[in-house]
Every structure is written in structure tokens, then in C-alpha cells.
Amino acid sequence: MVDRFVLSCLCCCCLVGVLADSNAVKSVPVTEGDSVTLNPDLSVKQSDNLIMWNFKTNGYLIAKITTNHTSIIDDVLDGIFRDRLKLDHQTGSLTITNTRTEHTGVYQVTISSKTKSVYRFNVTVYARLPVPVIISDSPQNSSSSSSSSSSQQNCSLLCSVVNVGHVTLSWYKGNSLLSSISVSDLNNSLSLRLGCLDDSYSCVVSNPINNRTKYVNVTDLCRPCSDCAFCCHASEALVRLALSVVVGVATVAIVFYDIITSRKGVNERHHDLQYKTAS
């Protein structure tokens, strides 16, 4: 009976220990240069808690809180955390100030008391986004009149960002998405071919927590829509032209038919008159 009771107690203790450990990883995005606080959300901090913060899972120890002492170990990994770590002795939270992209990674906090709890935070530091640059990618010179005419009626734009990765680059007309690419390279570009331009076109660079927009300047790039009636809404212009041709042909056919019918009627009346006269 006693053995069963002891075994039950041991199982309960093990179960409590397992439930106190959290395998969930909380995602924490932050913009480079900003501060981020990782809080294990301790409802009540026990006086005998031992709290250890590691960079990477079971990796480098960077901070520790004991009963009467707080330690920060910021000289690891060539000092990437030097003068950037702050510990809150009351809550056990860790703050990283002036974040940089090399601070991206998993941070693990282990809280040991009567039970052992483990919490993990996946921190992603995103670089600050630059404003996209839009240039005209249309040919400047043309060897033939046909290609010259084509270059005047079409506009190729190139939107680019440099020295930033893991972003999405998109072209918009108003609020409508025209095209988009997601890239990880540091130098990215996205082209757009248009008949003409207006103020509603824009290029947007974005990441999960921020975005920057650059609007097309119609006075500097290509031809504005007001100067090329056949460039903008080309399909609509073609439809209207086709309808005009159809209406014109139908009108000519009706007039021609009416003329023929009229002449035929005159000839029939003249023939009837001659027949009556002869009789």
C-alpha cells in the first residue's frame, strides 16, 4: 500500500515537471535598432528561483538570476551582446537593446525551483527598410522608326532595393496588386511594363512588420497617360475602333441597299407606265 502511494507521488511530481516545461516557441519580430523584451510571464517569482537565459537552444549562457544576484554574460560570440542586455530581477524578463540582425535566433529561459520550466522565444530582427528606387528601363535609342514608335508608346519601369534581404517587392496600381516577388538576396529588382503612367502606380517593399512605398513620378518617367491616348486602355481603344468600323460598314450597306431599292422601284413604275401607254 505504501509502495503504491510513493509511486503515485513520484508520477505526479514527474507529471508536474513535464507540464511546467513549455515546448512552444513564441515568435518575436523586431526592427533593427529597436529594443525587444522577452518575458516568461511569471505570475509570482519565487525567492529561490534560478533563472538562466541561453542564446540558441541549450547554447551560450548570456544571463542568470539567482536568489540575491543578477549576472549578465555579454562577452560571448565576439561580444555581439555587449552593453545590450538588461535583466529584470522581479519578472525574470530579458531585454535586448539596439538590436542587430545577428541577434536573430532562439532564446531559451530555464526557470528552476520546485519544478523546472523552459520557455523559448524565436527572435527575428528585420533590417530597416529603405525607400524603393524607381527608374525607367525603356530603351533610349532606337535604330528603326518602328522600334522608336514602340518605345514611345510603351514604358518599362524598374523598382529596386539594395542592402536589404528577406523582403517582398510589389507593384500596385491604386490598391490593386499588379505583380510581386519575395526574395532573400540583398539586391532585388522588379520590372513593370506599361503603356503609359499616371499617379496611381507605386512600388512597395515590405517585410512582416514594416513597409515603404515609392510612388511613380509621371513628369520624370516615360509618358503620362494624358499624352498618349492610344497607350492607356489599349484594349478599350481597339474595341471602340472595331465597333466604329462595324457601324460604318453597316451604315454604308444600309445606304447602298436603300439606293438600289429606290432605283428598282423607279424602274418598275416606269415599266408599268410604258406598258399602260402601249395598251
From TrEMBL:
Residues 1-20 form the signal peptide. The chain crosses the membrane at residues 237-260. Keywords: Membrane, Signal, Transmembrane, Transmembrane helix. SUPFAM superfamilies: Immunoglobulin. Coiled coil: none annotated. Residues 132-219 form the Ig-like domain. InterPro entries: Ig-like_dom, Ig-like_dom_sf, Ig-like_fold, Ig_sub. This is SLAM family member 9-like. It comes from Carassius auratus (Goldfish). The gene is LOC113039313.
